[in-house]
Design a protein that fits this description.
Layout (H helix, E strand, L loop, with lengths): L1 H9 L5 E2 L25 E2 L17 H6 L2 H16 L21
Antiparallel strand pairs: 1-2
Length: 106
Amino acid sequence: MNQFWDVLRNGRDCVTEIPEERWDYRDYFAPSRGAIGRSYSKWGAFLDGVDQFDPLFFNISPRQAELMDPHERLFLETAWETIEDAGYTPRRSARPPEPRWACSRA
């Protein structure tokens, strides 16, 4: 979160070419619009550590985690960090489950 605020405060541009560790954009790139099955962009803003999600911590199978939308994984991690930052411990929050709803995107 601190990095995010530093980026905003300093007005830094975080858009870069697609990193090789994500995918090789050259397999899909076309320099102009209209090429079917191709993208004319090789730029994006990428979060570090997206491959470090711990599905077992959230009682999710590794296979299911691979199929999840990355936004859902980020939502789970952020929700957990929020609970920790609020000072809740697993023991303090261990109550009978009540129905709760949360939405990561509209």
